Structures
1.
Amino acid sequence: MTLSSGTCGQASGSLAVLRALQQALEEQGLAEKVHVRVTGCQGFCQEEPLVTIQPLDVLYCSVKPEDAAEIVAESLANGRIVERLCYRDPLTGRLVTTAAELPFFAKQDRELIGRNQFVDPCDIRDYIAAGGYAALAKVLTQMDPEKVIEEVKASGLRGRGGGGYPTGRKWEQCRVAPGCEHYVICNADEGDPGAYMDRGLLEGNPHLILEGMAIGAYAVGARQGFVYVRNEYPLAVEHTRTAIAQARELGLLGERILGTDFSFDVKVARGGGAFVCGESTALVASLEGKVGEPRPKDVHLVEHGYLDQPTVLNNVETWANVPPILLNGSGWFAAKGTEKSKGTKIFALTGQVKNTGLVEVEMGTTLREIIFDIGGGPVNGRQIKAVQTGGPSGGCLPVSLFDLPVDYEALTAAGSMMGSGGMVVMDDSACMVDVAKYFLRFLKDESCGKCVPCRLGIDRMLEILTDISEGRGRADQLGVLEELAWTMSVGSLCALGKTAPNPVLSTLRYFRDEYEAHLNERRCPAGVCQALRSYFIDPELCSECGVCLDTCPEGAIVEDRPFRIDEMLCKRCGLCEEACPAAAIRRV
Amino acid sequence: MPNMVTITVDGARIQTPEGTSVLDAALEAGICIPNLCHLVGVEPIGACRVCLVEVVEDGRRRMTASCTLEARDGLVIEAHSEAVMRARRNIVELLLAEAPNSRAIQDLAVRVGVKAVRYPMRNNTCVLCGRCVRVCDEIWQSKSLGFVGRGTDRHVALPFNKRPDLCKRCNNCVEVCPMTITPCPGPMAEPRICGLCESQLTMVENIPDTCVWCELGRGFQCARWQRRGLLSKV
């Protein structure tokens, strides 16, 4: 049986479930016969912890410790399905017993994340049993480095960290760059709010990344690699370290790998939690022990990277794609996807949708399919308004653009970006000015502050947005915002500053009416901006119970006949709205 | 004799030794690319972004800072194109709103044609150009100053806020600071580009983006000042 226990699973109590399962197995005398495999995140984070039982092929969702005894007694001892714990389709009410039938999984192409289910991240034997390290063996024994690079180039694999630079070309540039030592680095400094694809991969299947890095190192001629992972991912750090130790033990890392002349080793470096260190040059500076600040990009990492030596830096997901490509051939990979974007991409689907979790789809899948078919559409019968892709520096796309395919060029043209793959869905309860403000505030804190356009530009943009959301905005400020955004996008030092205005630009482009409502009518259409909303008591519904009188911290409720709210005293906190038992207090 | 490379800046062909930055090459040739954080003799960091230029390659234009751009043979640079001037204006406007009392920044603003500031003025004294930090580190090998903090919290400070023994009070950091090159008597009467001291705003109102013999240029060893022989009189 398999129990998913990544960070998301553990947060849902998977460790207690594990103890309960083991105890139940012990009590019923099955401990010897049943192997409990503790895996990383399987993607369906909404319903964690997930328990799969083989050979019965049944999937249980949201398992609680108290269910353990029943699962063991029914499914393991007697081979019966506990229907109570199976997933029920919220639309049709149909019972789903196997993972393959799950509507969340059905439309996906879970090439990478699907492997998590078969692998205990702390046990290299699982990975090898699932076909792991076969690609490395094939590469080391049958291919020369040029051939490997050719193969990766032919596959059309592009950087999954967001930039979309062709991986094969990057490797080739690094290979030919002069230097006494070459390095490969895995960028696992994932800092986007609401994105955790890299965490899911690294903590669920660390050997896949290590194998990818070893192949990359062989191709570019490196002997040393680094996994730069943020310290906020303790499980990923731990699993990667365990994986490295196990691989070393079996001779899959270290001196003379698999008896060939190729030597390669990996170190784990922990990041201190700066978002900007996900930027490649800042990451390398941080790795060298310097302040994690980007440097001008006119000199590329592939020539002057770590310790001024040629360095290949790729994202976790990019590395994870390498072993399957080499094993199955570039044609297999290139067959998937659109003309310029090949393969599959993992997205972290979060926000106001029914099913949240890690979603892996073929490139070219439309946003609508991801959000409505896989994500299950809006919650609480609301209307989905927009989706924010690409992390804080991506953009918000409106429903009218949901037929856009997931493709580097298509998303960039629409004013957003692929980014590393965060996907935050917003419904009509979200105010787009407030959303833009949220992301700018994040970027303001995370900007390194080195260059003027980014440091002061974000600051001033936030100042203007705050003015707008607090009812002090002027119509000419929209022009200033656009001018600032343009300046930042052309003038900033690194990609963080260059893409920082995207949340503002894209909301201005698709939701300009909301900005104008804030400016001209001093009204927030979604009722989010505190300063612009007001409350009134519906005399028809008010029962004059007096709960609001006690709740209001400002004493703004006037005990007239009928009750009313003193606009001068009201701080628009909304406590009375929540407290009113008759729902007579409404927001306008 | 170092290898010479030829670059084109605003249509002028300039020969310069290999490894020079585009900004240095242009200044040397008397083409004034406005700049702030650039300092002769220390490593460029590309922080102020005032010296932005456009690189024209195969018909495509890409904007980058000229101080960190190394001169390569055949490089074509547009230092005063429409887009460059617009970006530069916006950036200096941001700087000016941050530290309106600096004469150096006022001059810079006049030089690039900032007419008005669209943001509320703040009265900060530091724009984080990092001149002091780099002089202390690279020229005096003292590392007594450094950047602390991130984003808007970033500021220049002594290590652990205590003057280290390595600091010999050479005062060089003060000398290179754009706030002190010629300090404005300030405070400004109104929040606008000064006009109280002898800023050349009125002089060049009709012909923006011409050389105003800015004080900044003198401090920065602009080629024009050097040629006038005024540098020695400073």
2.
Amino acid sequence: MNRVMVLTSLLAATGVSARAQTVLFGVQGALGDYREVSSNLRFRGSGVGGSLALHFGRFSAEGGLTRVSYDPRDGNAGLASFKSTQIDARLGVDVASGLTAEVGLLRRTVDPELSAQEMAAARIGVRYSKLIGPGATVGLRGNYLAGAKFTGEGSAGLAFELGLLVSVGPQNGRYRFTADYDFQRIDRKVGSAKTPIEQSVVRLGVAVGF
Amino acid sequence: MRRTGLSLLLALVPAALWSQEIVQNATLRQAIQAYEALDFPQVIVQGRAALRQRLTAPERARAEELLGFAFSATSQPDSAISAFKEAILLDPDRQLDPRRVSPRITGYFNAALGQVLVVRQLKVDTARFISGAAGSGVPIRFTVTSPARVRTRAISGNTVLLIDSSIVAGTLTLKWNGTLASGDPVPGGKWTIVVDAFGAGQYTTSGSQELQVTAGAVDTVPHLTALPGYTELPETEIPPQSGRPLGIALLYSGFAGAGALALNNGDLGTSTGREIGVAAGAALITGFVMMLKKPAPRPALGNIQYNRLLREQITRRNTDIVQQNAQLRRQVQLTVVPVARGTR
């Protein structure tokens, strides 16, 4: 069974979580798609995640962990399954109604080692969320991933992530259902050789507010 | 015939009118009985006899009035007017009921009134007013039967206040604003309104009315919590249901999906779209549910502005009321009640 086992984690909660809450804990199930270097290295997987979000007036801090077990998508011989553990951290400040500026960190490790690229990067970007009904918000996120480092050599001049955020629950914010999609494109180069990386992860879960 | 008719008119004056008054003097009682029997010569005899005896002032006025009636009935106008004059001088407020007394007698009586100088019908109404306020005061009304200089004063102990001094003939109505010469309110207590009339030949007459004056605080105006006829409007409103939530969810999902598709690195092949599909599906379901759900209240900006203006208006009015009350607290409300009445 190549499915990733559930691990507790802390993961950035959706940016559209209930702003009225000071603390928001969440657990999620995750689905992922990972591709690297060429179209032959394609993996799919599932896993779990957890998140913690704190809100202080205009400021917010979010952290999370997502663990996904990836299997070769086409069952190609010679490709091994691996487990990816991604840690996300974000600090945000509301700069306008619904618009939040964010900075943060990203670190992804794999197990077994060298089965895929491990990486770390800083992130800077914005998040915009929109209230569409009582207790329901949708939002978009765009981050530039700066200073990406890899276990192998190389650098990424262009690296960014795009997100879709959904949160719905009662207006008192005691609990919320969340859906959080992240698409990462990292144009890694080693020397003059292109070794790009792409990952798509969606997390579906529930968060409880205090 | 003429005398008989006049007698009948006189008889209309109810005997009860006379019998109600206590008459101690026996001669006067005989005169009254003679009047009731329409024996006018006997009324004149008995009335004159009574006037030569010791009578109280009301009895003397009654005797003169009986003589006036009897002289009128016996066609002696000069004597009737003379008798009425004496009656009026003794009792200036005395008057005849025109519904029960013949016009001729009333005419003699009015002629008598025009030939004497008296202050009649001095009346002071019960009143409550703010001392010194413009247009406020206690009404004083009296009649002077002949042209005369009339001086009206308010007197309490050693305090004498001139209310009015003017030449008057007929009925005059004055208003006393209850202030001292300094402009301060008069103190509470017993006050007497005295009206002196100075006629030709240094002839004077006067009337008076005693008053009880009570000084108290002026009622202040309560603060406003609302303006009559204006109520605050709800500051939130529930917008009508629409497909906007689903539209927004669709738009955002479209942005994310199109972005992921456009930014996909072709060297890595195409993504299955499973992840964005799941997220977009969640967004669309959320949007659909919200489309069916009762929308959340939103601020009603027009109502908020209206309420703000209303509250500002109330605040402004209350500021005015504070100033008005500060002024009212410096004022004194006088209550004037007539307690006794007399003339001299």
